[in-house]
Design brief:
The structure holds two protein chains of two kinds. By secondary structure, chain A is mainly β. Chain A has one helix at residues 2-10, and strands at 36-42, 56-62, 67-73, 88-97, 100-111, 114-118, 127-135, 138-147. Chain A contains one helix and eight strands. By secondary structure, chain B is an alpha+beta fold. Helix content of chain B is 54%, strand content 19%. Chain B contains 36 helices and 35 strands. Classes of the chains: A mainly beta, B alpha+beta.
Chain lengths: 148, 1048
């Protein structure tokens, strides 16, 4: 995984150092809540990596005790009406150690305009959090990479 | 005693006038030597502690540097607040002490505490105290440029650091010269990670070797024969070549030299700031003065030094001294107020002549103005006060009142001399002057005591408002007391010389203006004197209508200053590189210079060493100087804002240098409303700050809404894998230290060139630290088996995010949402904000919200002023009661206060529609001035009854009112019209704070004088008989007792 990371990083120019090239186009917006931004893509297009089409934007805020909140915005960074999504979302905390990837699922529930949940403790740095939201029939993915 | 003073002055009138002449001459000499500044000393004792933290991230700076320093300083005697900023590679802690504490004692205390904490800070991090500086500290910018590019940025910076700055620092009164821009010269060893790897040298070894390549030591002394020799082992490198030839290790049995693994060159030190003048890169020197140093004199010396320095500059270098100079603002502000003072005096002279129609009486009265002012100058010197806009303002407010006492005296003397001339058996003129002066002395003294007394509680005001208005109050009181002394001494003496033989004494008629006014007054009194209740009802209705205006008026702490220059803060997105921020800054400067009124721009992007700001490289501050004339400043600033916003995606904050520092002094935040969210976690603070901001966005009347830009910026992180490090026997801390040296660099020695010291600086070359894989490939250790351990073996390198800055206050992390109010009452707005925030923002445990900002200072000052105002009113009542022995008479005189309030409120409504601390202070001042009219009227009624045998009744009151009409109108008109020059120049530098004061006093005097002319006679006729007759009886009784010697 480390060598893969080096390979991937080499393909990116400054300042976009990243081991994970992400899903969907890179977002340049500042988080409205002071958190980390990422693109929201169709879950079925996740394999397309950065070429996946941007559907919405998502912002992640975290506390040190693991409480995460995900806020969803449209392409112009206007907050989306949470009512259009299912009230819970599936999330996965992904860590890498010695070329092994481990995934720990947890749930996010809609509360005060954000999907909120408690992430399990990550054993290594960095780690990723992927969240999948249901909007009608489609599943949407927001992948937050290189968290620590 | 007062009679004795008048008698003494008349008996020794020549000596009194000679003494007055001597005092005037001395006063003029003293006045020309008083220190001049724009404001009184507003410095709240603050000590700034700066710690350069070598590129550490804000989280580490906070934990390792800021927190220990804060912890050590909290609890220091006199400390009222400790706030800090932890930025990239810098920790700045501001320790604010209480007003009135002594700065050098405070610094001593801070220094002692810092000694305790020094050892607990990371190695190489030394907290230093910023210099003792003043709030009006930044007095001048000096730019060093090379218009034709003949002198390199490095040469310019060397010139600034080693020639210009040291010379400027020799000028007494300068506390600091902060240099920014250009390129700081250093000898650089740029290590190639690749070559290092090939030579099998680890970072650890390299660091140790490099630290030993340049050193001079001492070998003690040796005696050879009769001579003593100092032994000097010389190993200090003197050139790049010598550094290149230094060995750093062995490889395959051969020495490895620096040049084998690194490039050695003379290069520019890595910088976190850039500067330019008029859109061209330059070295900018910011000159700060010490508190108490005279800015104008200091600027003169700096200019002289610049002229001298220019002679020694290399060809192609230009030292620009004609950029921002605070002295220009001071000179313009002081000269504006001086003009107002002069014009006020002219107005007074015109009024006096119109009423008195007599050159001699006008001259005697006018003498009070220069004499009182010059005596005030002597007292200023004794009290350690200087000339500034506030002391001059106090004199400007008082100038119309300085002649009041003299008017009353001269008018009465003139009238009595005229009556005496017409009498069958005239008394001696000296006797008449004495009796006439003695007759009015009580009303003169009591009205002056009241005016002074009213102002006394205002000295209890704390904070900036107290510092600002106390000198105004001192100037006002001192000049009024001086005018009182003049009216009791010099005025009677001059009257005795100039009036008895005046031709106009023989005339029995008043002047045309006075005759007309008396005729109107007679008719007015006839119509109103029997309707006291209707008049009181009408006044009450007017008062209520005026008070109803209050909710529609805005609130401000202090009026906005017009400093003549602008400080424009420009924030690009945090995370931007210095190069990008610099090129954005150049574009913005070019856009600003295209505005026709802009004369020059000075830009500082990021921060300089020794700078007391922790701003990142995304922040630029541009000081703009304007040409004279052109469009109104508001339009120009609007134009600048538009041109800046067009030049790039930035947020713009337009302010002024001194105002900016005042805001920081008040709350650490420059806004009327500052909502501080405090708590332990940055992510939560950012989220809660955003929620509060969202709530405020929906509140009507909120403008300039801004969330403190504490955001996440990109960070390339190297997370040490502790297991991997342990498997290679590498201590994680040592590894991190090596990486710091390799990537951030470290000074490993010095090179001396002609008394100039340059660092030898070592770090990986740009190629070796260009990208994550280059960093991963960096060798950190050569293992016993010859294998090379790289960063990639021991750590995970990834792109993450981290905070750009961490701000703390009172030991808590905090984020600030700031805003201003527009078109709404600030108090009501705050209440609504508090309600909505409480309802909509759910605070997790450990988080809290506090409300501060200018509104806090304004509300605190307003509450205090209300109490002080009540104390002043109580004081007036007590003095009046002591004099008139009747609460009814005291209250009748105090009726002038609400009458004055009517005019003041309407005057504010018609002009600014804003209440500030300045208007509230003016209200209180007005209470004293307005009471004078009533005292003069009622004292005269009582005099007529007691001394001239008039019966209480309409006839006596009409006579008394007509006799007092002229002095009442004259004192009111001179007091009010003397302020007209302040009214006509709203917003001029120096008059910003005085304008609202003038509005309130002029409006109040207009209504109180106009209404007093018919309200007081009517009310006295209805309610005055009993108290007046009782007072006369009491005084007679006391006089009889005194005559019999019954009294002690």
């Amino acid at each position: 995984m480390r060598y893969l990371g080096v390979l991937l990083a080499a393909s990116l120019s400054l300042p976009a150092f990243a081991h994970d090239e992400g899903h969907g186009p890179k977002t340049t917006d500042a988080g409205r809540m002071g958190g980390v931004m990422t693109a929201v893509v169709l879950a079925k297009e996740a394999k397309l990596g950065p070429k996946a089409a941007l559907i919405y934007k998502a912002e992640l805020t975290r506390t040190e005790d693991g409480v995460v909140r995900v806020y969803l915005y449209d392409k112009d960074m206007k907050p989306l009406d949470p009512a259009r999504f299912a009230k819970t979302a599936k999330a996965v905390l992904e860590t890498h150690k010695k070329k092994k990837t481990s995934k720990t699922p947890f749930t996010l529930a809609l509360e005060d305009g954000a999907f909120k949940g408690k992430a399990p403790k990550a054993g290594t740095k960095p780690f990723n959090i992927d969240a999948v939201f249901k909007e009608g029939d489609r599943e949407l993915l927001a992948a937050f990479d290189n968290l620590d | 005693m007062l009679d004795a003073i008048i008698r003494f002055s008349l008996n020794r009138r020549f000596a009194v006038l000679a003494l007055a002449a001597v005092l005037s001459a001395y006063g003029a000499w003293v006045a020309s030597r008083l220190p001049v500044d724009v404001f009184p000393d507003l410095n709240r004792p603050t000590v700034a502690i700066l710690t350069e933290a070598h590129g550490l991230a804000p989280e580490e700076v906070e934990t390792l540097v800021t927190y220990p320093i804060e912890a050590a300083l909290n609890g220091t005697p006199g400390v009222v607040r400790v706030r800090s900023s932890s930025g990239i590679g810098i920790s700045i802690v501001h320790v604010e002490f209480d007003w009135g504490t002594e700065i050098f004692r405070n610094r001593q205390l801070v220094s002692e505490r810092l000694q305790l904490v020094k050892d607990s800070l990371p190695a190489g991090m030394v907290p230093i105290m910023g210099p003792v500086s003043s709030i009006m500290g930044e007095i001048q910018f000096v730019g060093l440029t090379s218009p034709d590019g003949a002198v390199s940025p490095m040469e310019l910076r060397t010139l600034a650091d080693w020639v210009v700055r040291p010379r400027l620092m020799t000028i007494p009164g300068i506390s600091q010269v902060v240099v920014m821009g250009g390129q700081v010269k250093q000898y650089q060893i740029l290590v190639s990670g690749d070559r290092l790897q090939r030579k099998g040298i680890s970072l650890e070894d390299l660091k140790r070797s490099l630290s030993e390549i340049s050193e001079n030591t001492t070998g003690g002394f040796i005696d050879v024969g009769d001579k003593e020799f100092l032994i000097r082992p010389l190993a200090r490198a003197e050139s790049a070549e010598e550094i290149e030839e230094s060995p750093v290790g062995m490889h395959l049995g051969r020495p490895v030299l620096v040049k084998d693994v690194a490039e050695v060159r003379v290069g520019a030190k890595l910088k976190r700031g850039e500067a330019s003048v008029n859109g061209k890169h330059a070295v900018v020197m910011t000159i700060q003065k010490q508190p108490g140093a005279g800015t104008i004199e200091l600027t003169r010396r700096i200019d002289a030094m610049i002229l001298e320095l220019r002679k020694g500059l290399p060809p192609g270098a230009k030292l620009e001294g004609d950029l921002f100079k605070q002295s220009r603002f001071i000179e313009s502000a002081v000269s504006n107020v001086e003009e107002a003072l002069r014009d006020g005096a002219i107005m007074v002279a015109v009024i006096l002549f119109l009423f008195l129609v007599n050159l001699r009486t006008t001259a005697i009265t006018l003498v009070a103005i220069p004499l009182s002012l010059l005596i005030s100058a002597i007292i200023f010197k004794l009290m350690g006060l200087g000339i500034n806009t506030m002391t001059l303002g106090g004199l400007a407010v008082a100038i119309g009142e300085l002649v009041d006492d003299a008017i009353v005296d001269v008018e009465n003397v003139f009238r009595r001399l005229r009556e005496n001339k017409a009498a069958g058996e005239p008394k001696s003129s000296l006797r008449v002057v004495y009796e006439a002066s003695s007759e009015v002395r009580n009303s003169i003294v009591f009205s002056t005591i009241i005016v002074v007394l009213v102002f006394l509680p205002l000295f209890a005001l704390g904070g900036i408002e107290g510092r600002l208005f106390a000198p105004l109050g001192v100037a006002y009181i001192v000049s009024l007391l001086a005018s009182l002394v003049v009216s009791l001494t010099v005025t009677p003496a001059l009257c005795s010389y100039l009036l008895p033989n005046a031709k106009s004494i023989a005339r029995h008629e008043d002047g045309a203006v006075v005759r007309k006014l008396k005729s109107w007054d007679r008719r007015l009194l006839a119509a109103t004197i029997r309707r006291p209740n209707a008049l009181l009802g009408g006044c009450a209705a007017l008062l209520l209508a005026s008070l109803a205006l209050l909710p529609f008026m805005g609130r401000n702490f202090l009026p906005a200053f017009n400093e003549g220059t602008a400080t424009i803060g420009i924030a690009a997105a945090p995370g931007i590189s210095l190069a990008a921020s610099d090129s954005l800054g150049l574009r913005i400067e070019a856009a600003m210079l295209s505005v026709p009124e802009v004369k020059s721009t000075i830009r500082r992007t990021g921060r300089a060493e020794l700078d007391e700001h922790a701003e990142g490289v995304h922040w630029s501050e541009i000081d703009v100087d304007f040409k004279e004339g052109g469009r109104p400043r508001d339009q120009v600033l609007q134009d600048i804002r538009a041109s800046v916003e067009k030049a790039g995606d930035v947020s713009v904050n337009i302010g002024q240098p001194i105002s900016h520092r005042l805001d920081h002094l008040l709350s650490g935040v420059r806004a009327q409303i500052a909502i501080k969210v405090s708590g332990p976690e940055l992510s939560e603070l950012r989220r809660l700050g955003a929620e509060v901001e969202a709530v405020l966005r929906e509140v009507p009347g909120v403008v300039d809404l801004s969330l403190e830009p504490l955001v996440l910026i990109p960070q390339l992180k190297i997370a040490v894998d502790r297991e991997a490090a342990a498997s290679l026997a590498m201590r994680p801390g040592a590894l991190a230290a090596d990486l710091e040296m390799a990537l951030n660099g470290e000074a490993v020695g010095t090179v001396l060139e002609r008394q100039r010291i340059y660092d030898i600086f070592m770090r990986l070359d740009d190629k070796s630290r260009a990208d994550p894989e280059a960093i991963e490939a960096t060798v950190v250790k050569t293992l016993p088996n010859g294998r090379l351990a790289t960063v990639g073996d021991l750590a995970e390198v990834y792109a993450g995010t981290g905070p750009n800055m961490i701000n703390r206050e009172s030991m808590q992390r905090r984020i600030v949402v700031s805003a201003n109010s527009h078109g709404r009452d600030l108090g009501g707005l705050i209440e609504e904000i508090q309600e909505k925030v409480a309802a909509k923002v759910r605070l997790p445990e450990g988080y809290f919200i506090s409300y501060g900002g200018q509104f806090e200072s304004q509300q605190k000052a307003s509450r205090l002023l209300l109490l002080l105002g009540l104390a002043s009113l109580a004081g007036i009542f007590v003095v009046l009661y002591a004099h008139f022995k009747s609460s009814i008479l005291a209250l009748q005189i105090m009726l002038n206060v609400p009458l004055a309030l009517i005019g003041s409120l309407w005057a504010i409504w018609l002009t600014e529609r804003t209440l500030s601390v300045a208007t509230l202070i003016a209200f209180i001042t007005l209470c004293g001035i307005a009471s004078r009219n009533g005292i003069m009227m009622i004292s005269h009624y009582i005099h007529l009854m007691k001394e001239e045998g008039e019966e209480f009744g309409e006839k006596m009151i009409v006579r008394g009112s007509l006799e007092r009409l002229v002095p009442v109108l004259m004192t009111a008109l001179t007091a009010a019209l003397a302020l007209v020059p302040l009214l006509l120049s709203k917003g001029d530098p120096g008059k910003e704070i005085l304008y609202p004061v003038a509005v309130v006093i002029v409006g109040g005097l207009f209504s109180s004088t106009l209404l007093d002319i018919f309200v007081t006679p009517a009310v006295f006729l209805r309610y005055g008989r009993g108290p007046a007759e009782a007072l006369i009886a009491l005084e007679k009784e006391e006089a009889e007792k005194a005559a019999k010697g019954d009294m002690l």
